[in-house]
Design a protein that fits this description.
It contains 10 helices and 13 strands. The strands form 4 sheets. The protein has a 5-stranded mixed beta sheet with strand order 10-9-11-8-12. Strands 5, 6, 7 and 13 form a 4-stranded antiparallel beta sheet that branches. It has a two-stranded antiparallel sheet with strand order 1-2. By secondary structure, the protein is α/β, with parallel strands linked by helices. The protein folds into 3 domains: about 80 residues, Orthogonal Bundle (Arc Repressor Mutant, subunit A); about 110 residues, 3-Layer(aba) Sandwich (D-Maltodextrin-Binding Protein, domain 2), CATH 3.40.190.10; about 100 residues, Periplasmic binding protein-like II (D-Maltodextrin-Binding Protein, domain 2), CATH 3.40.190. Strand 3, helix 5 and strand 4 form a beta-alpha-beta unit.
């Protein structure tokens, strides 16, 4: 029995759905089902009851669940402690930021860390939500920055910051002449979203919101690199938040009848692997608020309903 089999078992036990568990584990469903069957063969009994009504734990699965969870949490905790026992790692803060975090926000965060703990070296990794979640689970990061929704098991999640999502396009785009656009306007142009693997939950929420507003999506392109070139040559429209850095050839507009709100949180593992992690987390959140137009919870209107806070004037 390998630790990864217990991780797979816990994911299915928590979700009671093989498809959702596979998405959380960033793998396809057939290999997950095969690994669960391997585990069931090893323990000599079924751990899940599969039927047309869904998936449930068997009596054996219920009995194994607390021990499996304790084993995985103990291993992850030991891994984090072992990393920080190395002399060269004791003063290293491992932080992951999303690819759209601005250089100004990063610089402000680093200055805050140096001011608070001058002997702490910060190791920055640029990674998507989809990449950060397993890295956090395996003790490879001390602090992460994730886009909601995401699996929160084993994580301390700071209050979510929010920002409106709207339409990013070339300044020469026909819609750029409008101060505000509507969902129906977008139906005539290819839409560009970030690749789903970067933040599966946010991708699904965003696409569902576009469709719920009556937008019949003609084409969805998933791209991050060379985005500016695509928007200026293909009359495409990207769904992005206004705080990301972009060139003078691009402009951002709110979508009046689609109140898209994206949310992000600074997170760390439970228990934290380093002291004062909450201080570092606050510094990162404050840098995002200052430079990247993220709004703190108390400044938004209603972050539970997806109602967007007041956005900046269009660029």
């Amino acid at each position: 029995m390998e630790l990864r089999h217990l991780r797979y078992f816990l994911a299915v036990a928590d979700e009671l759905h093989f498809g959702r568990a596979a998405r959380l584990l960033h793998m396809s469903q057939p290999p997950l089902s095969a690994r669960i069957k391997d585990l069931e063969r090893e323990v000599g009994t079924a751990l899940f009851e599969r039927s047309s009504k869904g998936v449930t734990l068997t009596a054996a699965g219920i009995e194994l669940l607390p021990a499996a969870r304790q084993a995985v949490e103990a291993f992850d905790r030991a891994q984090r402690i072992a990393h920080h026992l190395r002399p060269e790692a004791r003063h290293v803060l491992r932080v992951a930021i999303t690819p759209d975090t601005s250089a100004a926000a990063l610089q402000t965060f680093l200055e805050s860390v140096r001011e608070f703990q001058p002997d702490t070296r910060v190791a920055i990794t640029e990674a998507s939500t989809g990449e950060q979640v397993p890295a956090l689970q395996h003790g490879q990061l001390d602090l992460g920055l994730l886009r909601h929704p995401f699996p929160e098991v084993g994580l301390h999640v700071e209050p979510a910051l929010s920002t409106p999502a709207g339409a990013l396009m070339a300044t020469t785009h026909p819609l750029a002449r409008q101060s505000t656009i509507r969902a129906a306007d977008l139906a005539h142009y290819p839409l560009v979203l970030f690749p789903r693997a970067m933040a599966p939950g946010l991708y699904d929420e965003t696409l569902a919101s576009l469709m719920a507003a009556g937008l019949h999506v003609r084409a969805v392109k998933q791209i991050t690199r060379l985005l500016g070139g695509l928007l200026t040559t293909d009359n495409a429209v990207a769904i992005r938040h206004p705080g990301m850095s972009f060139t003078g050839d691009l402009t951002w507009r709110p979508i009046a009848d689609i109140p898209l709100t994206w949310r992000t949180s600074v997170v760390w593992t439970i228990p934290p692997a380093i002291p004062a992690v909450d201080r570092f987390a606050r510094a990162l959140a404050e840098a995002l608020i200052r430079h990247d137009q993220w709004t703190p919870p108390e400044s938004g209107k209603d972050h539970s309903t997806g109602t967007a806070p007041t956005s900046r004037p269009p660029r």
